[in-house]
Amino acid sequence: TPLKVRTCLQYGTTSTTNTNNQQNPDNSDDYDSYDDPADSTDDGLVDKNTSTVVSCSRYATFCYALWTIDAVKNTTKVVVQGCWEVSDKKETCINNECISYKETKSGHFFCCCSGDNCNGNFSYATNPMLTDSANLATDGDYTPFAPYTSIWSSPTVYICFAMVGIILMLIIGFLTCRTTTKAVSELAPLAPSGPGYSSNLYNVDNLKLVSMIGQGKYGTVWKGIVNEQHVAVKIFTAQQRQYFLNEKDIYSIPLMESPALLSYFGCDERRTMDDRIEYLLVLSLAPLGCLQDWLTDNRMPFGVFCRMGKSVANGLAHLHTEIRKGDIIKPCVCHRDLNSRNILVKADLSCCICDLGFALKTFGPRYECRGEIALAETKSINEVGTLRYMAPEVLEGAVNL
C-alpha cells in the first residue's frame, strides 16, 4: 500500500522540506534573516493567489507556517509556508491546527501541524491549553490571539465576590444589631419586681459598688450604681447563704410591691479576688439611712412623725395581708425582726421596711421557713429578732399562728 503523501500550502520558498538545522520547530529563529517575499501585499497581507498547494516528500509529514504580527496596524504578514520534517519532538506538530504558543526573539511566530493544508489557517495563543482558538485566514485581516487571562480578571468573579461580601456584611450587621438590642434591653432602667415570681429580675453584671453604707451581723450593705441608677447592694458571705436565700425568696413572692417595702431588682453570686463566694441582693436605695440613726440626729414636726409611723404600719400590713389576684397568690409574711434599725427613711421622709432574712410565709396554721412547711401547733417557732421588740407570746414560745 503506497504511503499517503502530505499536502501543504507553500509560500515564500521553493523547498518542500526543512534543512537539517531546522529539524526542531524551536529553531524557528533561523528565519530571522529571511527576506520577505516580494509578492507580499503593501499592507503586509499575503495574496491568496501566491500560496500554492504542494505535495510533500515522504519524509515531510507535517506542514508549517512562519509569520509576523504588526501590533500597530493589527495585521499579520506571512513569511514562509511549506512542508516540514521533524526528527525529534514530534509531539509538537501532531495537532491538526497550526498554533504558535510563543514568540521568537526577532518577533516571528512559528507553528506546525499534521493535517493536509493545515498551515493555511494559523494562530497564536499564549497558553497551550487554549487550542480551540479562532483560525487565522491567510486572505484577510487577522486579529492576534488574545493573551490568556486568569479567572481573576473576569468581572463576573468580582461581582460574585462583591455579592458574597455584601451578604456577609448583612449577616454580621444583623447579629450585631441583635446583640446590641439585647444589650440595650439589659441596660434599661431597673424595674422593680413584677406580679409574677422571679428569682432574678435583672442582669447585674454591670453593677459597680461605690461605698459601704452599713454593716451588720448578717451582711454588709453597699451603695452601688447600675446603668447610672443608684441602688443598695446587700452582700452575704458563704456562711450567711441561708439568710440570703430566705430574703431573696421573700422578695421574689408575687404581689410584694409596696411603697413601704424596698423594691427588689435582682441577685447575683460571685467570687472575690481571694476565691471566696459572695451573694448579692440588689434593692432600691433609701438615701437617709435607718430610722434609728435618723431619729437620733434629727428633730421633726408631729405631722412628719405621723407620716413615718403610718408608712411603717402600711408596710407591715402589706406583709401580713394575703392577696389573691386570679391564680396569683401572695401569702402572709411575718417579718420577725421589726425594729428601728430595719426601717429605712426615704428621701420624702416616708419609711420602708427592710431586712427580711428572718421572715417566713404563713398559710393558716402552717408556715414555711427555709423551704420547709410545718404546723405551728406541732413545731414551735424559734425565737429570733431583737428582744425588746419581741411580742410577749413570742418570748414565751407559745405563739400559735
Automatic annotation (TrEMBL):
Mode of membrane association: Single-pass type I membrane protein
Taxonomic superkingdom: Eukaryota
Region (Disordered): 13-44
UniProt cofactor(s): Mn(2+); Mg(2+)
Keyword Amino-acid biosynthesis appears in the UniProt entry: no
Compositional bias ranges of the Low complexity kind: 13-26
Start-end of Acidic residues biased regions: 27-44
Residues annotated to bind ATP: 234
GO CC annotation, single: receptor complex
Domain named Protein kinase: residues: 207-401
Entry's family note: Belongs to the protein kinase superfamily. TKL Ser/Thr protein kinase family. TGFB receptor subfamily.
Name listed for the protein in its UniProt record: receptor protein serine/threonine kinase
Source organism: Aedes aegypti (Yellowfever mosquito)
